[in-house]
Structure formats: C-alpha cells, structure tokens
Specification:
This protein is 65% helix and 0% strand. The chain is built from nine helices and no strands. The longest helix has 23 residues.
C-alpha cells in the first residue's frame, strides 16, 4: 500500500487510482466517525461521498496535507455540518426558521466497545454512560486518541483547537472518568485503561 505522501502526490496529478486507494483506505473509519455526530446514516454517507467528489474536483488546488486522515476527518465533519445546516433550513415551521444551526454533538455507540475480552454487559453500559456524560469535545478527543489512534497534533487539526487544549480536554476527561462513581471500582478502571491501550 502506498504511503500517504505518495497518494496525495498521485491524486494531485490526477491519478484516479490514488483516489480509489484513499477511498478504500479511509471510507469506513471516516463514515463511522461521522456517525458519532448524527444518527442519520444516509446523511453520514452523503457527507463522505460529497467529500470524495470535492476532493477529486479540487485535487489540483490542494495545499500541503500533513495528515491525510486528519484532513479527511476535518473535511468530512465540515461536510456533515453543512448538510445538517441545509436540512434545518429546509424544515420550516409556520413559515419561519432559525438561521442558527445547533452544534453537532459527538456520541459514542455500543459498537465502539467491541473488545476481544468478554466483559459484563452491565459494566459496558456503565462505562458508556460515564463517557457519554462528558462534554462533546472531550468525548470526541477520547474517540480520536484511543479508538482512531491519532496524534494530539492531528486531533488539534480535526477539532480546530490548540494542541494544549486537546491535552487539557483529554486530561479532564480521564480525571472525570476516574472520579465517576459509575466506573469507580478498580476493576472497571483497569478495563478502561486496557481499552485505551488497544
């Protein structure tokens, strides 16, 4: 498999095989990432499809991309936001609608906790509730860091916040989880640590 740098160069040159390789390599993780912000599967699929259409159309104008996965996650999130905004404007109530679009909130799902070690369903539910009790930015940072295995710099790029802010969000999230009575037992904290190292 070609490295990211080569794929980006080939894409910029107009090599459609490079686009196919990028699509094959990143479609699934990008799609599941976007599903964390909406329960509408078709909307997440449309955002990913629109992203790849735009990527091909603007390939010659692409600037320097340090992390292809980070670039795709940022662009995909932006596409999803615009689709959500567009859908809200189409839904008029009584002839009026608000120009404001509520923020899209990151949400974990049970599928994120498919671990190879069999665990008690009740513990998984408590862990899921504890993580979903965190602020949206912290949940997203945990997902990107420990599930997608992205660097702090890549997360900073995706979330559009400073490097230090990402570190602060991760630290606050882990502190909140440690202090949460839902997962307060030592065994469950060890389970969480195991999940984070996967």
């Amino acid at each position: 498999m070609k490295v990211e740098k080569d794929l980006i160069l080939e894409l910029k040159k107009g090599n459609s095989d490079a686009l196919s390789m990028i699509y094959d390599q990143y479609y699934e993780s990008l799609y599941y990432y976007l599903l964390k912000f909406t329960r509408q599967e078709d909307l997440a699929q449309n955002a990913v499809q629109d992203l790849f259409v735009d990527l091909w159309a603007s390939r010659s104008k692409l600037g320097e991309i340090k992390s292809l996965k980070g670039y795709l996650f940022v662009s995909g999130k932006r596409k999803l936001y615009h689709l959500l905004q567009s859908n809200k404007k189409k839904q008029r109530f009584g002839g009026a609608y608000s120009d404001e679009v509520e923020g899209i909130f990151f949400q974990y799902s049970q599928e994120d906790f498919l671990v190879e070690v069999e665990t008690n369903e009740q513990r998984k539910d408590r862990l899921l509730k504890a993580i979903n009790g965190l602020p949206s930015r912290q949940k997203e940072a945990i997902y990107l860091r420990y599930y997608e295995k992205l660097s702090i710099e890549e997360i900073s790029q995706i979330q559009g916040i400073a490097y230090q802010s990402v570190l602060n969000n991760l630290q606050r999230a882990l502190q909140a989880l440690r202090a949460n009575p839902l997962i307060g037992s030592l065994f469950e904290w060890v389970l969480l640590a195991f999940f984070c190292l996967m």
